[in-house]
Amino acid sequence: MAAPFEERSGVVPCGTPWGRWYQTLEEVFIEVHVPPGTRAKDVSCSLQSRHLALAVGGRQLLQGKLFDSTIADEGTWTLEDRKLIRIVLMKTNRDAGNCWTSLLENDYAADPWVQDQMQRKLTLERFQRENPGFDFSGAEISGNYSKGGPDFSSLQK
């Protein structure tokens, strides 16, 4: 089986003061840098459908209403090398037109260039799913790709 699309084509990250976040058609990934030596018992992470809260050692690092809804039961967090917390959220709406413009409703927005690159990436990922025999991982896209690009589903094969 081929590697996932994001592994072959890279990710479009949005940098933040605490780390970065990025997205695929199905998931939102959050990487939070924490003090070296952090232990899992020092981490408090609450993942709800529309809300996220992360604290380390009693200090709130990230909290607020998510940009869009997620499947709460499928959200996970891991502590990697005792210095990075990786949170994975499963989007409820998984189409290319659902490109999150920010992580939280009023915080950590992608700048316009990054937002454009994210939308291009999700559109190419959609094309990849619709055409599994082709490799779009190195493709460039121009034209109408906002809201997931053109809809060819009504065309006859």
From TrEMBL:
<keyword id="KW-0963">Cytoplasm</keyword>
<keyword id="KW-0158">Chromosome</keyword>
<dbReference type="GO" id="GO:0005737">
    <property type="term" value="C:cytoplasm"/>
</dbReference>
<feature type="region of interest" description="Disordered">
    <location>
        <begin position="138"/>
        <end position="157"/>
    </location>
</feature>
<dbReference type="InterPro" id="IPR037898">
    <property type="entry name" value="NudC_fam"/>
</dbReference>
<keyword id="KW-0137">Centromere</keyword>
<protein>
    <recommendedName>
        <fullName>NudC domain-containing protein 2</fullName>
    </recommendedName>
</protein>
<dbReference type="Pfam" id="PF04969">
    <property type="entry name" value="CS"/>
</dbReference>
<dbReference type="InterPro" id="IPR007052">
    <property type="entry name" value="CS_dom"/>
</dbReference>
<comment type="subunit">
    <text>Interacts with LIS1.</text>
</comment>
<feature type="domain" description="CS">
    <location>
        <begin position="14"/>
        <end position="104"/>
    </location>
</feature>
<dbReference type="GO" id="GO:0006457">
    <property type="term" value="P:protein folding"/>
</dbReference>
<dbReference type="GO" id="GO:0000922">
    <property type="term" value="C:spindle pole"/>
</dbReference>
<dbReference type="GO" id="GO:0005813">
    <property type="term" value="C:centrosome"/>
</dbReference>
<keyword id="KW-0206">Cytoskeleton</keyword>
<dbReference type="GO" id="GO:0051082">
    <property type="term" value="F:unfolded protein binding"/>
</dbReference>
<keyword id="KW-0007">Acetylation</keyword>
<keyword id="KW-0995">Kinetochore</keyword>
<keyword id="KW-0597">Phosphoprotein</keyword>
<dbReference type="InterPro" id="IPR037902">
    <property type="entry name" value="p23_NUDCD2"/>
</dbReference>
<comment type="function">
    <text>May regulate the LIS1/dynein pathway by stabilizing LIS1 with Hsp90 chaperone.</text>
</comment>
<dbReference type="InterPro" id="IPR008978">
    <property type="entry name" value="HSP20-like_chaperone"/>
</dbReference>
<dbReference type="GO" id="GO:0000776">
    <property type="term" value="C:kinetochore"/>
</dbReference>
